[in-house]
UniProtKB/TrEMBL annotation:
Organism per entry: Drosophila rubida
Cofactor(s) needed for function: FAD
Domain called FAD/NAD(P)-binding: residue spans: 7-338
Domain of life: Eukaryota
Mitochondrion in keyword set: yes
Enzyme class name: oxidoreductase
GO molecular function annotations of the record: flavin adenine dinucleotide binding; glutathione-disulfide reductase (NADPH) activity; thioredoxin-disulfide reductase (NADPH) activity
Annotated protein name in UniProt: thioredoxin-disulfide reductase (NADPH)
Shown residues within the full chain: 119 to 602 of 605
Length: 484
């Protein structure tokens, strides 16, 4: 034991980052406790250990996305010669049960794994008493815990807008994956990736989502790609209410929800009735319960700033994952940062987390994946004259028989214009986008150049091979649409 503390390390938050850090620290000989506590949502939804990704994030989202893609595939199957019975329809309650059963099995495995790996799991809400002491609020009362080192990995929760009826009648991504009724006609407020993904799978499952967009779609992503993602969703019959903000939500006598909203450009106020209103307007870091001031830890806009070694302003208190300020909010980012931190703390490693060029996917019906710079960020960084954008539309072979729309299947590479022609960013809109971009992410991190990309032999017939066939530059003005 280092110093006179109960633990070498206490990790606050048993999600992606916290668990990875705790397990790695134990593997290197540290004595570790990990606290995890979930406050129920306003509608009473709660869940087990493992954090956002497992319970109300990546995993249930991917499963519902898959359910929605399967529905699409069944419809396509007829064109491929399958005798498909007339009408197929989803059973929401069966889907929710399957998804929740999977989550419960992951919760169980997580607890067993913690026990096997000798991470002490404390199901309590942590708040600092001083910089080496934590108070954990447990079901059985409060417990005081001391530790030499702390890692804050508390993540975030969805925000609610400050309008009448928002909290009483609206739900968020924290509720949708366990909703005990069909969502029906749903207003999705927010056009970040969570809003678009939820609207996408709801449409695929046969419900009627509408997306309300305050300003732009997919802020932070390449805006040409964002435009194509939105257009591909509109083509599938998802309406986008643009430049619109919600004003109020009221419950009607029939139980449905009357939403009043305003067009911010024209000032026009309108309303519509929905079965479900889902807020996807961003997430708030969970700093409030931590009593950070007792430990002297500074926060910034409900996030915690850290240096390149994930250290807060207090040298023995670190933070990883969604709670840190200004870094990508993604599970693999939290996991790797947590693991590397534990190795630096307990295994003499000096390796730091590299937050640059992190690949990501938006699981909309037509998926979008990217790695590296957006076109606008490349222009901002290097200047429009110094970059070359290679692009092209393409037609996935498997889309022909069911006559699926290929209008928005598109790839582009943003690269250095001269010299080595280093690739700065890759963008892909089409099927299985995450699977396509993951390997290219490793290539980009290894210094991929346009000549290397062009000299890579494609795998035919795939959609990933389109990256090896990019010959048209935007600057040339040539039509990037394939002839056949
Ligand atoms: P979390 O996983 O949120 O874990 C923090 C834990 O700490 C929680 O259990 C919380 O309840 C607990 N806690 C908070 N305060 C305290 C306290 N004071 N005491 C004790 N415990 C506390 N990422 C991807 O990479 N791919 C995706 O496809 C993807 N899809 C997503 C879809 C949705 C709908 C959402 C919401 C997120 C998605 N994410 C995705 C993001 C991903 O879930 C997060 O980046 C990741 O979970 C962050 O991990 P974390 O360890 O920082 O926090
Ligand atoms: P994001 O990516 O922060 O997107 C939130 C969306 O909600 C975005 O389109 C916002 O529009 C919109 N928004 C925000 N506040 C409001 C209000 N008050 N009314 C209407 N619309 C609003 O959040 P996500 O939930 O998709 O993702 C959460 C995080 O996970 C995100 O930070 C990623 O980094 C990872 P805006 O563009 O601000 O006008």
């Amino acid at each position: 034991l280092r110093g006179n503390y109960d633990y070498d390390l206490v990790v606050i938050g048993g999600g992606s980052g916290g668990l990875a850090c705790a397990k790695e620290a134990v593997a290197h000989g540290a004595r570790v406790a990990c606290l995890d506590f979930v406050k129920p949502t306003p509608t009473g939804t709660k869940w087990g250990v493992g954090g956002t990704c497992v319970n109300v994030g990546c995993i249930p989202k991917k499963l519902m996305h898959q359910a929605s893609l399967l529905g699409e595939s069944v419809h396509e199957a007829a064109a491929y010669g399958w005798n498909v019975e007339d009408k197929i329809k989803p059973d929401w309650s069966k889907l929710v049960t399957s998804v929740q059963n999977h989550i419960k099995s992951v919760n169980w495995v997580t607890r067993v794994d913690m026990r096997d790996k000798k991470v002490e799991y404390i199901n309590g809400l942590g708040s600092f008493v001083d910089s080496h002491t934590l108070s954990a609020k447990l079901k059985s009362g409060d417990r005081t815990i001391t530790s030499q080192t702390f890692v804050i990995a508390v993540g975030g929760r969805p925000r609610y807008p400050n309008i009448p009826g928002a909290v009483e009648y609206g739900i968020t991504s924290d509720d949708i994956f366990s909703l005990d009724r069909e969502p029906g006609k749903t207003l999705v407020v927010g056009a970040g990736y969570i809003g678009l993904e939820c609207a996408g799978f709801l449409k695929g499952l046969g419900y009627e989502p509408t997306v309300m967009v305050r300003s732009i779609v997919l802020r932070g992503f390449d805006q040409q790609m964002a435009g194509l993602v939105a257009a591909s969703m509109e083509e599938r019959g998802i309406p986008f209410l643009r430049k619109t903000v919600p004003l109020s939500v009221e419950k009607q006598a029939d139980g449905r929800l009357l939403v009043k909203y305003e067009n911010t450009e024209t000032g026009e106020v309108d309303s519509d009735v929905f079965d479900t209103v889902l807020w996807a307007i961003g997430r708030k870091g969970l700093v409030d319960d931590l009593n950070l001031q007792n430990a002297g830890v500074l926060s910034q806009k409900d996030k915690i700033p850290v240096d390149s070694e994930e250290t807060t302003n207090v040298p023995h208190i670190y933070a990883v994952g969604d709670i840190i300020y200004g870094k990508p909010e993604l599970t693999p980012v939290a996991v790797l940062a947590g693991r590397l931190l534990a190795r630096r703390l307990y295994a003499d490693s000096t390796l730091r987390m590299d937050y640059a060029d992190v690949a990501t996917t938006v699981f909309t019906p037509l998926e979008y994946a990217c790695v590296g710079l957006s076109e606008e960020d490349a222009v901002k960084t290097y200047g429009a004259e110094e970059i070359e954008v290679f692009h092209g539309y393409y037609k996935p072979t498997e889309f022909f028989i069911p006559q699926k729309s290929v209008r928005y299947c598109y790839v582009k590479a943003v690269a250095q214009r001269t010299g080595d022609q280093l690739v700065y960013g890759l963008h892909y809109l089409g099927p299985v986008a995450g699977e396509v971009i993951q390997g290219f992410a490793a290539a980009l991190k290894s210094g991929l150049t346009i000549p290397t990309l062009m000299n890579t032999v494609g795998i035919h017939p795939t959609t990933a091979e389109e990256f090896t066939r990019l010959s048209i530059t935007k600057r040339s003005g040539l039509d990037p649409t394939p002839a056949s």
